[in-house]
């Protein structure tokens, strides 16, 4: 086998490989000799089939197997011998001329092919102690825990029908029909819809106008959809809702005691507070970790500047761009709506793709040197968690797919490995903790307006009667539009 380098430019490599016809012939004869003692042909005793007869019958198919074997084995061994790490699977090219291919399969010509690939550049890990970050830490106060406890308690609160006018914290059952420009709009009507005044389930200004109404009352409520409302055809529009009050119910007195805790499946109010504090600290802790990780990645990005393999960047950009365009399409928005152009957006997301690839390679190198590993138990838990997102009848099929496809399984391992490397780095770099307020911790965070909700609150929620779908509620409609 003759191996020669035909391209060495930056990270790009191209290798030409020639396997002489005599070597191809030798490999073919080995296969024929092996088949001679195994094949059963009519008219011939076992092991007595002439080689030339076998060659006429199986020569081309055996030689095709030889070709595939060479391509599979040699591409890997050649790169290993060169001490290189390919960024992606090498691209193989060989003759497309049918007559030349026939000569190779007949053993009458040398087999030639070329391999083109990009290498992962050598990455020398610098002193990690030189990296310094400030980790924001929020101590959850007792008042915030108590506020969450009240929210949980409110989720299992009972209501009793009452005579008289609706007040703050009363539950009202209403029929409503929404109109924009005098026309009913899709999803803007519902019957027997329940809401608790003051819980801000509906768009701003809606619930407040129910105060003072009683069962049997009718009223037209005027509101304006928020300018940032997810359903674009309603954003900023004035609307009228014709309301009929079906029932007004008052809430029982809110008492945080052991009896309430038992309704939630816990033994005491003290245990409820303990669980909620732990959940809040965990969820705010996740924000702390994400901010620390972001600082860490920014520092690594500044420290390591090198050319990233273009094929990896292209693949990462394609993934990002597909998500961006899909999100815009679902939101019925354009790049102009986002105060940019497609060209500018492409440029920005290309830079993001390059950053992700470079950081991915740096983290991989750090993880390799630190001997970071993802255990089989960790992989199994992550895989099970992933397939739970699919319908139950598909889960076994999805599980088998992942277990049988190394590349698919790698997509499960990659984020686990990254987080473990980040954990390792946070023990190696200079980290200073800084106490901050809740607002400071959540500043510049996409969900800064959202208070992390403890699992106990989510657990209690199903005990409430599910509300019918409607366009007027702020949170439900916004989330639906974003999902679509």
UniProtKB/TrEMBL annotation:
Pfam families of this UniProt entry? FKBP_C, Trigger_C, Trigger_N
Q: Which InterPro entries match?
A: PPIase_dom_sf (IPR046357), PPIase_FKBP_dom (IPR001179), Trig_fac (IPR005215), Trigger_fac_C (IPR008880), Trigger_fac_C_sf (IPR037041), Trigger_fac_ribosome-bd_bac (IPR008881), Trigger_fac_ribosome-bd_sf (IPR036611), Trigger_fact/SurA_dom_sf (IPR027304)
Residue limits of the PPIase FKBP-type domain? Answer: 169-264
The record's listing under Gene3D superfamilies reads:
3.10.50.40, Trigger factor ribosome-binding domain, Trigger factor, C-terminal domain
Q: Where does the record place it?
A: Cytoplasm
UniProt cross-references to PROSITE patterns, sorted A to Z: FKBP_PPIASE
Keyword Protein transport annotated: no
Bias (Basic residues): 461-473
State where it is primarily located. Answer: cytoplasm
Compositional bias, Basic and acidic residues, is annotated for 475-484
Q: Which EC main class describes this enzyme?
A: isomerase
Catalytic activity, reaction form:
[protein]-peptidylproline (omega=180) = [protein]-peptidylproline (omega=0)
Q: What does this protein do?
A: Involved in protein export. Acts as a chaperone by maintaining the newly synthesized protein in an open conformation. Functions as a peptidyl-prolyl cis-trans isomerase.
Q: What family is this protein classified in? A: Belongs to the FKBP-type PPIase family. Tig subfamily.
Protein name as it appears in the record = Trigger factor
Q: Which organism is it from?
A: Chelativorans salis
